[in-house]
Amino acid sequence: GDAVAIVKIHGEVVDEFPLSEGLEVEKTYYPNDNQYNIIEINNNQARIKEDNSPDQVGVRTGWIERPGQTAICLPHGLVLEITGQMAEDELILPL
User: Fold this and answer.
1) How far apart are CA 10 and CA 5, in angstroms?
2) What is the pTM of this model?
3) d(C-alpha 93, C-alpha 38), whole Å
4) Which tens digits make up the pLDDT trace of 10-62?
5) Strand 78-83, strand 70-73: pairing
6) Of 84, 68, 69, 26, which is closest to residue 51 (Cα–Cα)?
7) What is the distance between the alpha carbons of residues 92 and 40, in angstroms, rounded to a whole number?
8) In angstroms, rounded to a whole number, what is the distance separating the alpha carbons of residues 25 and 59?
9) In this structure, are residues 76 and 14 in contact, taking their beta carbons and an 8 Å threshold?
10) Helix, coil or strand: residue 62
11) CA–CA gap between residue 39 and residue 49 (Å, rounded)
């Protein structure tokens, strides 16, 4: 796929996953002490599978897959964001 899932913690990009067929990832992040977020990538979509935030807003967002979509866990400062291809890739495409 053309989309990339980006994980940001406190505004810093900590991971990037290309959303492509056959890619399955489950990874746990610890944004702060006693806080965790489990990010799941499954083929062409991504979600915050589980976290221990009080509001569960990011978890309830569910699967996202289109550039511009986000799942945000504000209490932890974690953002899961879908973007288009990374800029470097676009430079080598024919104009």
Assistant:
1) 16
2) 0.86
3) 34
4) 999 999 999 998 999 999 999 999 999 999 999 999 999 999 999 999 999 99
5) antiparallel
6) 26
7) 30
8) 16
9) no
10) coil
11) 6
